[in-house]
């Protein structure tokens, strides 16, 4: 009963914050009688609420990306006009008011900050359990900030010292007004919090819904990759793999299964996920032909990742069935490490790292190790494999942003009722608009459109 009251009290506060966009509230006093967490068991229970912390990743990153399309008939049948507008990169009104990804992101931030503040203000002994819980909260909050930066901020490589990022909400006090820090300040916060978490967390947890040291390493590698700091990204991808090197041999799986991969499988380092949005679900979102055509004959991923119905292919290869897995897994770390090694001039080593992954993806006895004689050729290979491996993992949108920031010139295109819509490299629309109700309530700066 105590924990139920605790959750209800925090949920009520979160609802207020979400509905008011964290705007300063006057003439309201907090109820001092609300149950608050006081023990380590209480704090851990808050972080074990996977419905708020693990199950709220940002599906808009996949809706906006280029690995799928839908037919004109399916698009017309959509009842969600916000997703329809997001699909062809409209400039505004991409999010429903109140109940949207901004609200769920900052609800999770509030949960994490509640734990961090509660621990810091408590007289609890700073033992291993205390450190573990604090480290988990730092990772959860960092995950939220990183995803939010990827959606609502410019690519790090395109951002100057004043480009707005996201509110970092350092306090749970909802009387404090929200303001947008810069993109670079946001990434610096993610890095510093993850580095702090690494010092506190155990190598692995009892379950992968709880972030571990390996998870913090992996999320830090992803962060540095998005920042273009390839030396640091390689360092932390390698650190993650030292703790969690396991790869699934895809020869042990059945392509005839509706969902070939089990949830919490052996590659999972940190499990976070999101139910697929209507527009990208496995009965509507069709994989683009050029991605399907990129898989070789004996590449098992084609049969394990996609369900073929007539001439159409639908995604089924999630690591968290039937939701989409956006968490950290060892395959991503091999790809990150390989890319960074290649970018650092270690072409042979990078290709060796990539081949460690790919040999587990091809039919036994058919894989021919890939080789490249120069950096650019190797980089094109590893980037192509990254796209083929990490389908519907919430990463493609940020990959496009970071690669276009360095001049890769990826142009997105959709054809709707005979009209071609394009998104040019480094277009302002790569930073999605903050929900209009949040702007109205807080007065925060909207993204340029």
TrEMBL record:
Subcellular location: Cell outer membrane
Name of one Pfam family that matches: SusD_RagB
Gene Ontology cellular-component terms listed: cell outer membrane
Intervals holding TPR repeats: 214-247
Keywords associated with the record: Cell outer membrane, Membrane, Signal, TPR repeat
Statement: the UniProt record of this protein carries the keyword Membrane: yes
Gene3D superfamilies: 1.25.40.390
Residue span(s) of domain RagB/SusD: 332-447
Coiled coil: none
Main location: membrane
Record-annotated SusD-like N-terminal domain positions: 26-225
Keyword presence, Transport: no
Family in the record: Belongs to the SusD family.
Protein name per UniProt: Uncharacterized protein
């Amino acid at each position: 009963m105590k924990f139920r009251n605790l959750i209800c009290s925090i949920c009520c506060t979160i609802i207020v914050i979400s509905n008011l966009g964290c705007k300063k509230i006057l003439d309201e006093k907090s109820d001092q009688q609300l149950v608050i967490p006081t023990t380590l068991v209480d704090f851990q229970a808050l972080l074990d609420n996977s419905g708020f912390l693990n199950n709220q990743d940002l599906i808009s990153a996949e809706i906006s990306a280029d690995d799928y399309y839908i037919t004109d008939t399916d698009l017309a049948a959509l009842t969600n006009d916000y997703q329809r507008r997001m699909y062809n990169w409209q400039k505004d009104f991409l999010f429903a008011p109140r109940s949207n990804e901004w609200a769920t992101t900052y609800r999770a931030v509030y949960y994490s900050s509640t734990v961090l503040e509660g621990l810091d203000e408590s007289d609890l002994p700073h033992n291993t359990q205390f450190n573990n819980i604090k480290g988990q909260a730092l990772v959860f909050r960092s995950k939220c900030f990183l995803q939010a930066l990827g959606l609502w901020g410019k690519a790090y490589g395109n951002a100057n010292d004043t480009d707005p990022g996201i509110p970092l909400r350092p306090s749970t006090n909802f009387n404090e007004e929200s303001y947008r820090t810069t993109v670079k300040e946001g990434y610096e916060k993610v890095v510093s919090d993850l580095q702090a978490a690494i010092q506190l967390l155990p190598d692995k947890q009892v379950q992968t819904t709880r972030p571990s040291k390996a998870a913090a390493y992996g999320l830090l590698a992803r962060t540095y990759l998005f920042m273009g700091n390839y030396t640091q990204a390689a360092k932390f991808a390698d650190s993650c793999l030292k703790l969690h090197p396991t790869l699934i041999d895809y020869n042990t799986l059945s392509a005839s299964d509706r969902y070939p991969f089990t949830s919490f499988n052996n590659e999972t380092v940190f499990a976070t996920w999101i139910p697929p949005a209507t527009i990208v679900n496995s009965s509507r979102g069709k994989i683009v032909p050029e991605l399907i055509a990129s898989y070789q004959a004996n590449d098992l991923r084609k049969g394990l990742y996609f369900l073929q119905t007539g001439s159409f292919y639908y995604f089924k290869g999630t690591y968290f069935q039937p939701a989409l897995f956006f968490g950290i897994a060892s395959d991503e770390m091999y790809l990150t490490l390989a890319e960074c090694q290649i970018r650092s001039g270690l072409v042979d080593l990078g290709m060796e790292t990539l081949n460690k992954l790919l040999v587990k993806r091809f039919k036994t006895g058919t894989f021919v190790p890939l080789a490249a004689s120069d950096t650019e050729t190797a980089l094109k290979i590893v980037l192509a494999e990254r796209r083929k491996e990490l389908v519907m993992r919430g990463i493609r949108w940020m990959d496009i942003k970071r690669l276009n920031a360095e001049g890769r010139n990826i142009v997105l295109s959709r054809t709707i009722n005979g009209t071609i819509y394009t998104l040019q490299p480094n277009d302002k629309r790569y930073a999605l608009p903050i929900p209009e109700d949040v702007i109205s309530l807080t007065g925060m700066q909207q993204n340029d459109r």
